[in-house]
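Reviewer comment 2.1 asked that we show a complete input and output for one of the modelled complexes. We chose the adenosine-5'-diphosphate case, as it is the one discussed in the main text.
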Amino acid sequence: MADCTHDCSTCASNCSSRKQGSMIKPPHARTHVRRVVAVMSGKGGVGKSLVTSLLAVRAQAYGLKTGILDADITGPSIPKAFGVHDRALAAEDGILPVGTAGGIKMISMNSLLEHEDDPVVWRGSLIAGAALQFWTDVVWGDLDLLFLDMPPGTGDVPLSVFQSVPLSGAVVVTTPQDLVGMIVKKNVRMAELLNVPVLGIAENMSYYVCPDCGKAHEIFGQSRAEELAKKYGIPATARIPIDPAYTALADAGRIEEADTDPVAEIFTRILGSREIK
Ligand code: ADP
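Response of the prediction step:
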């Protein structure tokens, strides 16, 4: 298998030599994904979907065949940010992802609901099952990079996704306030326990550039991204400003026009893998 890294815990290949006893689920037979990267956060609302979107947009612009699996089943915000309102179609053997204007493939609970503003009022096991089906039953085809917008936190649902999808790495998203607490540590510990390398830490809402004086203000407190990256041995950081343009573009379904420079260092680290060079 060309993509085999000889380490089943970090390899996306679905090959016959995959170690027995692993909880990793094989993808659909017509899925060939070189790398899967999970984007995680300690809680909702910190900008996990924004970071997933920016990384995917940058990857697609770089020329990589890119997908987004929106595993945030109860809070799916990816399709709206990309202005995708199409329903996913079923093929005979699986579910077909929908496409964004820029060609990114995506699947989200919102692509399956009859009305995209319907709430998903399911128990945890069903939610985890749906997230896993987005990996096992969706015909992703040939992708260089698949980003997984994880359910927030470290509970049952994120854990089961983390254990079942062959992840090459993870990116932790946080805000300056969260960094003070234990939240980042919990995400990092979960990744470590499951043998998934944390490739980057993204500090969202890190500062605000005053449009009048041009000065950067650290509204939610001093940045600790570098300090935490050092502490946990995380190789790349991103500091994403509070920028009303992000909210406006996400609300208008035009996130593909957003400035992706703040996530450049993390993207370069993801690229550092030989599988997608
Ligand atoms: P999560 O996925 O962690 O729940 P989202 O990425 O959906 O969070 O972000 C929540 C809301 O905050 C969205 O409306 C998003 O557009 C807005 N937002 C996130 N980060 C920023 C930012 N850096 N600047 C401006 N708005 C932001």
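The longest strand covers residues 31-41. We note this here for comparison with the apo prediction described in Section 3.2.
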